[in-house]
Amino acid sequence: EAVINRIAAGEIIQRPSNALKELIENSLDAKSTNIQISVKNGGLKLLQIQDNGTGIRKDNFDIVCERFTTSKLEKFEDLSSIATYGFRGEALASISHIAHLTITSKTSDEICAYVGSYIDGKLQGPPKPIAGNQGTIITVEDLFYNMFVRKKALRSPAEEYQKISEVVSKYAIHNANVSFSLKKSGENNDIRTPLNSNHVENIRIIYGNLIARELIQFSCENDALGFKANGFVTNVNYSSKKMMFLLFINHRLVDCQNLKKCIDLVYATYLPKNSHPFVYMSLEMNPSYVDVNVHPTKHEVHFLNEEQVVEAVVTALETKLLGSNN
Ligand code: ADP
Ligand code: MG
């Protein structure tokens, strides 16, 4: 059974940055305003995330790493949110099967924090009291220690760290009210965004002023199609060899090649050959419109009326660019 669990977990968590994405989302779901991440050896030796959110109660330590344990489906209607968040209650369970996982957490009504460790998804003894502030520290050590082949197939620690850094950057830009930091363990922060910042400021902090100073705000809404889009995109004075596309659908970081390509094409009219924009976009739509069948690691999504939505976004963007080009 341990082997089956391990294989299933390895499909959900394919590299350290997948695990981190899930952990960041958990911290955000727990209403954290400060999220600090520390990494050793590209996340393979250590991946640690500390938040100041609601915390996990001592009594829940033994179940949070069981499959399908989630505190996030309280009402029946919430089932539709499965559409937004993909599989429910699988992240911690998966990680606990393929790494040494330790949870330290304190809720507001407990007088101290508790710490518990997991092996093969099982809590090793009752949580022990320990000093700590409200919130949660998730420590993931030796990721893939029991998956020899996966470990061999991974890229260099530097490349894994790069992926981790991209994930943190994107969440920090989207959640500009939350303060984020990322560092290699024992070193200085590579990323640090302040509390209650804004999207443009965080783009400046992370990607630099060259991009930030050329940003224009973009928004478009369509009731008939049931979506809203908001974001910041570079104007036609900016161009880069590689397209930067940060897309969130219902606050989850996703890929949508179709939308990406169409947006790039809009810019192709204005930018020099082989040049591309920077685009940060947040789409919100009825969760039941987003494809339920996306697997957590297959970040590529499809949604209802995709062609019409893409068309509407692209048309609005075209109008916006025309307006900013005189
Ligand atoms: P899901 O997020 O889909 O519910 P997870 O496996 O990611 O499933 O997490 C399981 C449960 O553990 C969550 O529903 C939540 O109750 C709790 N949890 C995980 N991380 C945190 C955190 N950082 N702060 C508070 N609770 C957490
Ligand atoms: Mg989760």
TrEMBL record:
<feature type="domain" description="DNA mismatch repair protein S5">
    <location>
        <begin position="203"/>
        <end position="322"/>
    </location>
</feature>
<protein>
    <recommendedName>
        <fullName>DNA mismatch repair protein S5 domain-containing protein</fullName>
    </recommendedName>
</protein>
<dbReference type="GO" id="GO:0005634">
    <property type="term" value="C:nucleus"/>
</dbReference>
<dbReference type="GO" id="GO:0006281">
    <property type="term" value="P:DNA repair"/>
</dbReference>
<keyword id="KW-0234">DNA repair</keyword>
<keyword id="KW-0227">DNA damage</keyword>
<keyword id="KW-0539">Nucleus</keyword>
<comment type="similarity">
    <text>Belongs to the DNA mismatch repair MutL/HexB family.</text>
</comment>
